[in-house]
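Example S7 (structure tokens).
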């Protein structure tokens, strides 16, 4: 089992990727909203800022603090399932895995989700975690209600009907508006998805990108740098019957190839970068075509045990093929050696002010490097491509953008900061990252 990100013996908090650390003055693990409110009051009295940190899956310093670190470990569990309304209310510290398992037992499911489920509910929605979808959007876009404990100790209940301006902003709140205590999601009866995974040349994927997105409910692909090959995945609803991956076949591809062997080749590549192009050519041919049918979370998500650092940008959907071609050219010109595939996903436009898909259909391009590998040169080259296309960085992944840039690419940026000014005028919930991306 992987060690849990958190406070080490030296008193230092570290994130999952290992690229962010902080030394909080103290930690609090409240078991109730009342205990949480008391922790906020005490922090304010002591002149300390407050940040909540879940599983540390963000690659930015969004949760880092030298003040009070709130642990949500005891604020967990499903509070209510309303079948008539089609909703589930869950404590904000609940891991997504626990939520998905609970919903499956009740014959229910989220409509869409990201590709891992280790994060807490609060962490996932606050940073804009998303999967891929033609019609169904991010996890935050499925929120129909939430509770937020603000700097003055007020517990706000928010929905489209109640505290609507706060609701609009807090669905992706970056931890800047308060501490989420519960979230209510729209859910639906559990359904089946058929996943079709298939290798495909990059040239074909980019040439047929519009059709692949339009013809499938969920389309994504992984391009292997130093090759012209991709692995594609198409998920579509199915009438069944269920046909899950066999235990041996699933273990071989998802655990042995995608985690065990991948860990080994990345360790080799970090030590001897010259081997990476040859290994990439072998890796791009290692995964074979397969088709299976299962309930949603077993199709959307997969184990990610190889640790890495990641940058991801959302671009206007129509610009994805051009951006990928430019990224490939930039890698080839630079002489960089890139051992991780580049991941591409999509999302429809939504109405959340700081959503990376706010107001526009979006394509996501994510670049990764193995933990411990120098990443700045590669990420700088990638970021230059992404920003040239008006890209919006994922709030929880490495980027160098600031409030001046972000206010230009988010038309509703000022709407969010106005809510922040009202709820947290003294900046109890700030840290250096939020000062950079939102301003002071």
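Recovered sequence:
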């Amino acid at each position: 089992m992987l060690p849990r990100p958190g406070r080490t013996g030296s008193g230092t908090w570290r994130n999952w990727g290992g690229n962010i650390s902080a030394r909080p003055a103290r930690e609090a693990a409240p078991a109730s909203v009342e205990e949480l409110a008391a922790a906020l009051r005490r922090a304010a009295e002591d002149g300390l800022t407050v940040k909540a940190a879940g599983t540390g899956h963000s690659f930015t310093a969004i949760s880092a603090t030298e003040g009070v670190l709130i642990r949500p470990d005891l604020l967990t569990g499903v509070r209510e399932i309303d079948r008539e309304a089609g909703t589930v209310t869950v404590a904000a510290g609940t891991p997504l895995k626990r939520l998905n398992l609970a919903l499956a037992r009740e014959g229910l499911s989220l409509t869409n989700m990201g590709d891992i489920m280790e994060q807490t509910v609060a962490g996932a929605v606050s940073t804009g975690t998303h999967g891929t979808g033609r019609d169904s959007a991010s996890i935050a876009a499925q929120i129909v209600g939430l509770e937020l404990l603000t700097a003055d100790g007020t517990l706000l209940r928010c929905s489209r009907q109640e505290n609507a301006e706060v609701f609009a902003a807090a669905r992706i709140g970056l931890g800047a508006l308060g501490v989420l205590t519960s979230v209510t999601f729209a859910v639906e009866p559990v359904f089946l998805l058929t996943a079709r995974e298939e290798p495909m040349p990059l040239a074909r994927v980019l040439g047929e990108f519009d059709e692949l997105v339009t013809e499938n409910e969920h389309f994504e692909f992984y391009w292997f740098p130093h090759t012209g090959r991709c692995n594609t995945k198409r998920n579509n609803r199915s009438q069944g019957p269920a046909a899950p991956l066999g235990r041996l076949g699933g273990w071989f591809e998802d655990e042995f190839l995608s985690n065990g062997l991948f860990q080994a080749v990345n360790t080799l590549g970090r030590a001897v970068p010259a081997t990476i192009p040859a290994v990439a050519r072998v890796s791009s041919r290692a995964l074979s075509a397969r088709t299976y049918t299962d309930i949603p979370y077993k199709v959307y998500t997969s184990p990610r045990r190889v640790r890495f650092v990641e940058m991801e940008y959302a671009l206007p959907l129509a610009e994805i093929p051009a951006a990928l071609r430019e990224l490939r050219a930039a890698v080839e010109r630079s002489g960089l050696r890139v051992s991780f595939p580049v991941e591409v996903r999509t999302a429809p436009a939504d109405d959340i002010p700081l959503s990376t898909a706010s107001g526009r259909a979006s394509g996501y391009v994510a670049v990764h490097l193995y933990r411990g590998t120098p990443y700045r040169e590669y990420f700088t080259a990638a970021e230059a491509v992404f920003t040239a296309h008006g890209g919006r960085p994922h709030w929880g992944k490495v980027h160098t953008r600031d409030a001046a840039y972000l206010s230009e690419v988010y038309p509703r940026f000022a709407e969010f900061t106005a809510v922040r000014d009202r709820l947290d005028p003294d900046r109890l919930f700030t840290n250096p990252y939020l000062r950079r991306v939102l301003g002071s």
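Notes on this example. The CA atoms of residues 92 and 336 lie 41 Å apart.
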